[in-house]
Amino acid sequence: MTSSALASVAGTSGAFAQTVVSSTMTADQSKSFSVPPGSLAKALTSFGAQSGKQVSVETSVIQGLSSAGVTGRMSAQQALGQLLAGTGLTYRLSGNVVTLVKASANITLGPVRVGGTVTRQDPTGPGVGYVAENTMAGTKTDTPLMEIPNSISVITKQQMVDQQPQSVAQALRYSPGIMSESEGTYGNGSPKGADTGIMQRGFSTSQFVDGLMTNSTSAGETAFLERIEVVNGPASVMYGQTTPGGMIGMSLKKPTDTPLHQVSLGFGNWGRYEATFDISDKVTKSGNIRYRIAGIGVTQGTQTNYVDYHRVGVLPSLTWDIDNKTSLTLTGMYMYTPGEGTASQYPRIGTLSPNPNGQISRSTFLGEPSWNNNGNKDAMFEYQFKHKFNKYINFSQVFRWENSNWNQQDTYLKTGTLTDTTAPLQPMDYHTNTNTVGMDARFFGKFNTWSLNHTWVVGSDFRQYNYNSQYSYDYTSNPSVNLYRPNYSYSPCFTWNHAGCQLTGAVYNSSYFQEGIYFQDQIKWKRLSILLGGRQDWVNMKYKADSTSTNENTENVKVSQDYLSTDKPQPQSAFTWRAGLIYNFNFGLAPYFSYSTSFVPQIGSTNYQGHPFSPLTGKQLEAGLKYKVPNKDILLTAAAFHIDEDHYLISDLEHTNYSTDAGRVKSQGFEIAANANITNDLKIIASYSYTDIRYAKSNLTAKRYNPITSESYGNALSQEGMTVPYVPRNMFSFFSDYMLPNNFIKGLGVNFGARYTGFTYTDNVESFKTRPYILFDAGVHYDFGQEIPFLKGLTAQVAMSNLANTYYETRCSKTVCYLGQGRRIYGNLTYNW
Question: Which residues form the Secretin/TonB short N-terminal domain (predicted)?
């Protein structure tokens, strides 16, 4: 390296920096920086390019030093301070030239401050290391996590890079209060989008992209995400229809203020091959118009024979800074997934429970290879508009249209006549189309009344959702498969006008329109923050279904029956509210307390008589502690909660494929979590969750059944007081990443994680439990540029999950189980320039 470096760049999120700022320096104009972690020499070159300043330093001074990088909008002084954190260096400024020198031994390191204000992170950016300090998800305003009186955790971009999750469910594995992958992908781990079986504090959850609810099957593509946020507890005031367990928020990639160029080639077991790219640059010379385009192409098998995963997708976006107060961002997405990578269920006897013939292999395909097509197509368009009227009033609007088409030609297990060696199959043909239009518009700003500081929001949102599906079942014959020696020979018959086909099917059409208005005031007095908010929702639903079947005695004749028709809108409405307070002590501790309510209309769900269910209504009390270690990127949180929800739905055991109202359920427990960048080289996340969810009030009864014979026995028991099935009471996780010292192997890093999931009950009267399990993850990454200068920008990585290849069940019912994913090994070569 020469003795000086000159460059100019910028990015998306800031953080605390720990070095000393020369008192002679004046504050630069805020810019956006994006300097990746790596060698200090490379980081300084990027900083110079992005700031327009000339950095002068002797090679011997920075040799062997590394930097954690910096991303976010801040001044050049703040960015440089963060780049030099922990290096023992400081700087002097003369005109436009920055000179680096060793800091004096008696200097105390602390956070960089300009005008008395600590640098803030971008609330929608990637975070720094494993720590994010600000969020939009909890309040729809740029608010520090330490000032929000409820539990929120953030999966940063760096965490996703280190763990290489293929879906949102996998990215949530280390988050408190979350049970991910309990059902949706049947163990194969494909990015199945919003339908992933994620449970939050014991309740099913909803996914939001850029603040709007999504039902897209491509919502789980992590290659297109900047960060993922977990809001535990009711979020209905800000987002409308969410369960009391909480919501998952995702931020799509947007154009960066500075050039970004990245390509990656991936590989892995089960024949995985992947290619991605992520390019962002300015369109105009001034940079007021910028673009970004990300893409992915992947093909692989899975742990199950005859089940493959294939996907290609592209995410282009364009940002136009119309003036210094107005901006518009346009985003599009198209995703084609011809192979979804989901397998079938497995019999409980032979997985969880012993089978005299042994354990059923994860590779066994329980279906018909000739009738095995699962795929989807997704398209999306979104715009985000922002305008600042003055220092008191701002306006923001997000609009999105999305369309998903899902086609499934598959067979599933008929659970009634399972034997020790044979599984009867039911072929089906299923087609679904969903179309969603949503918009959220809000005014927000700040004002003061005497000694009180107010951050206010008033907004309205709507969502028009249309769901259309048709399916048919083939009853022409009774196919089956041997569980231990599969022999596939069945040819389905799915032609309605074929004389030999015996089919039964149905067509469903449902739609709803939801509109809500909401308000919120965040009141701050000295170190006390108070949050007050309310919302009114209105929902109109329509639902219609027609069943169709061939007549066994009269060939080629369809018999149609309209067994449910609600062409007239079914209105539902509710008012939800929340209140909370949090106090920040000057030594970093912040206790809080909050109360909030939730509302979810039961759209498209009916009992066996065709009657719709009452909406879900919930309420939560939460108390907790947050501790931000002063001058460190270490955030510790603890939360205790009590939730009640009325009209909780469960499967109707007497009427197959229908639900029934179980009454009121009660969920209570606590969560502890840590997110920490201990040093530039060591990052840690950890969490423990305890969730006890039970039927608090119910008139339903059921018999227990024998885990060996699957036969019921004894008298019917009341479900009241019983544990809700499928929810683990205890979960623990830990993950760390460590860059080895340069005198060992320069540029080499390793990581390791462990995930424990406790037992769950298999039915509503606690007949028996699934097995608890613990899984281990590990990885290694290497920066070639640290040792070989001409390979600057090239990195290699391998990420492994379920290192011990543990055989486990994520969820079981009376007759079937979902198997967890076996050992997965993913690697990639990534080049940044």
Answer: 53-103
Q: Which residue has the higher pLDDT, 787 or 95?
A: 787
State the CB neighbour count (10 A cutoff) for residue 108. Answer: 8
The residues, any chain, with a CB within 8 Å of residue 224's CB and separated by 6 or more, are 252, 253, 294, 296, 313, 315, 333
Q: What share of the chain in percent tops pLDDT 90?
A: 55
Q: Looking at domain 260-343+373-832, which CATH architecture does it have?
A: Beta Barrel (2.40)
Using DSSP, state whether 46 is helix, strand or coil.
helix
Nearest to 700 by CA among 670, 661, 735: 661
Contact 790, 824 (CB under 8 A): no
Torsion of CA 414, 185, 754, 221, to 10 degrees: 180
Average pLDDT over residues 428-445: 94
Q: Which part of the chain is CATH 2.40.170.20?
A: 260-343+373-832
Q: DSSP string spanning 94-125?
A: ETTEEEEEEPPTTPPPEE-EETTEE----TTS
Query: In Å, how far are 456, 504, 817 from 346, measured between CA atoms?
Result: 52, 24, 5
> Residue 343 pLDDT more than 60?
yes
DSSP per residue, 440-482: EEEEEEEEEETTEEEEEEEEEEEEEEEEEEEEEEE-SS--EEE
CATH of 31-102, one of 3.20.20.190, 3.10.180.10, 3.55.50.30, 1.10.287.70: 3.55.50.30
Q: CB–CB of 773/810 below 8 Å?
A: no
Q: Going by C-beta distance under 8 Å and a sequence separation of 6 or more, which residues neighbour residue 450?
A: none
- For residue 484, the Cα-to-chain-centroid distance in whole angstroms is 36
Question: φ and ψ at 602, to 5 degrees?
Answer: -85, 85
Instruction: Identify which has the larger pLDDT, 551 or 328.
Output: 328
Residue 62 pLDDT grade (very low, low, confident, very high; cuts 50, 70, 90): confident
- The per-residue pLDDT for range 720-741, each reduced to its tens digit, is 999 999 999 999 999 999 999 9
Give the CATH fold of the 134-252 domain: Ferric Hydroxamate Uptake Protein; Chain A, domain 1 (2.170.130)
The pair of three-digit structure tokens given for residue 301, joined into one six-digit string? 């098998």
Q: Token pair of 204, please?
A: 């099913």
Task: Cite the DSSP H helix spans in 137-228.
Answer: 157-163, 168-171
Element (H, E) at 41: helix 40-51
| Predicted local confidence at residue 24, as pLDDT | 31
Write out pLDDT tens, residues 648-702.
877 776 676 677 888 899 999 999 999 999 998 999 999 999 999 999 988 888 8
Residue 492 φ then ψ, to 5°? -65, 155
Across 814-830, average pLDDT: 92
Q: What is the per-residue pLDDT for 568?
A: 55
Q: Tell me if 405 sits within 8 A of 337, measured CB to CB.
A: no
183: left (phi over 0), alpha (psi -120 to 50) or beta: alpha
- Polymer length in residues for the chain: 833
Contact 182, 198 (CB under 8 A): yes
pLDDT band at 645 (very low <50, low <70, confident <90, very high): very high
> What's this model's pTM, rounded to 2 decimal places?
0.82
Q: What stretch(es) of the chain map to CATH 3.55.50.30? A: 31-102
